[in-house]
Amino acid sequence: MNIHSIAAVIAATIHVLVAAFVYSKKKPNPVNRSFAIMLLCVALWHLDVAGILSAPSPEMADLWGKIFRNGLLFVPPTFFHFILLFTHPRGIPDRARKILWAAYLSSCFFAVINWTPYFTKGVRVSPWGYHAISGPLYPLFLLQFLICIVLILYHLVIGFLRADSYRRQQLKYFFLAVGVSIILGSLNFLAMFGVQKYFFGSIAVTIGLLIAAYSVVQHRLIDVSVFMAKGLGFILTFAILGVPFFFIILLLEDTFFRRIDVTFALVLILTGAASILLFNYIKVRVDRAMHQIIVRDKYKYHEVLEEFSRRLVTIIDLNRLLHMLADTVEKSMGVKQISIFLNEPEKDMFRARLLRGSPKEEMIKISPPGLKFLQGKKEAILLVDLERAGASAAEKELLNIMVRLQAEVCLPLIYMNRLIGFINLGSKVPEEMYFHEDLDLLYSLANQVAIAIENANLYENLKKSQTIMRRADRLASLGTLIASLAHEIRNPLVSIKTFTQLLPERIEDEEFRNYFLKVASGEIDRLTGLINELLGFARPSEPRLEGEDVNALIDKMEILVATEARKKNVTLNKNYARDLPQIKVDAEQLKQVLLNILLNAIQSTKGEGKIWIETRQVQVPFEDKVEPFTQIEVRDTGVGIPKENLERIFDPFFSTRPEGSGLGLAISHQIIHDHGGFISVESEVGKGTSFKVHLPLKPGGKGADQQ
Q: 298-317, pLDDT tens digit by residue?
């Protein structure tokens, strides 16, 4: 093989591989199909050049050229066809279609006369091998080629002026590709007219068309500035490594070339290995420097989005999570129109959980094919991709949704292969396209958001479960009290009943009337207060922090447990600090805590025991400083808690009583922890137990899990 034909052979191989790759990306797409056909024609042209240069005789060179020159003859119409499809996605205009047919027919004419001396008149020898000689009709082919190039440039310019930001970015690459291919590729035609110039055309056309291939397949393009930065990064990397190693190799050749030396081979191998190891290390850093110099502004928001993605795991409130996501995207990328829809399985629809700048559309119904399409999509979905010809019914359905919501990008939220929602983003401000790096970052962010949303939902479900458990524990405590309170309710009812029975007989007795009216009124007030406390304790309520008097809350709970204490001969003693300030607590939740602790104290006291309820203000060391807390101590003379059980009393479902649920202290511990406080316990078997509830005086004070 002629050494000068190697470049053409490599170019032909690259074009065939690229054609297969482009065609396989989206087979139904006519743009990709036409581009692949054009690449195959260019590959045949390269084979034509390679075969003629390497031919062993003039006859073989001429025959080879007549066979493979057909690829070159059909390059103009196939290239023009591709540009028309690319710049007119909604269909080729009739006038342009007629011109295209004329171009194909003229190429067919040239393919026929290619076998006659009127097109080529044999071959001649050059310093690099054989090359064909132009015939009298060959300039007609060049004229057709020139007309097609002019039409191609015309449609590129018109398409650029009419296109949106995405098409414009693609067309920038085509201007670059066509310019490289025409200016340098035309050198291959000079040899046809006797001008001795080297065949740089194969290399030039390969570079140009690879740029065009990148634009066809990679719809999510990086910006030209990023392209320049990466290109300069590669060039500088090769320069930094290549220049010094070039001189090293020259020095080694001068030193070792005169004889075979193992040391030379080892040094050469080590030098090559060092180049491979250092290449990526240096390239990454040079690439980063080029990005900082050329595209600093475009990469600032990437850092913001990446930082937000790291913070996602700490956000467990769904509403806050969605609004922070919208704020971050708007701030970093300038996107004003954002909508987030989450699935509601019970309604089999998607509900809008956040609408910012988007049309008000509360619910969206998606068909099963549409759901399957979204669920199977492993990348961000662009509106321009869905607008192409030949889109499926599922893609058209999603296209209608995105158009209604004025969205340019749709990000499916996939969790465990299940579609839990989707995010729609409008255009950037100022108007700018979403680049490849943007969409990769947004899709990665969407995956993390999906996990964060599921975590937030789990947290909401956990809170609901805790609420249900707290209500169940509250009702269980009421069940314990009701039996004891029945006696308290029965006694005043007996007094009132006696009064009503005697009243007819002694209606005239003023002293009797006044006495029993006073007694009955007092008993009714006592019953009313008792029932109100029971109803208030049993009634579910939302957490609400308000300023409360701790001593007053304890008095209310004492009313409920007093009967149970008397039934067990337990004396309740109170010792309040009178100067306690009000603290921010949820009164109903704190009542539940006090009731649990008091009932436990009463039930653990055998015989004639005592319970002390004391309040005080204390200073508690916390994180190298002292913070003020209100302390409520409930101390009893009961049986005490064994040391082996002391660390488990706050565990859910742990109880030493057969009838106990094991939830009371666990829920109490959680309630106090939610208030920023903690509960500590001291106990000695046979002597009693002391529970100390600590609540911060400062709203939102810090608590600790201490026992």
A: 555 556 666 666 666 667 77
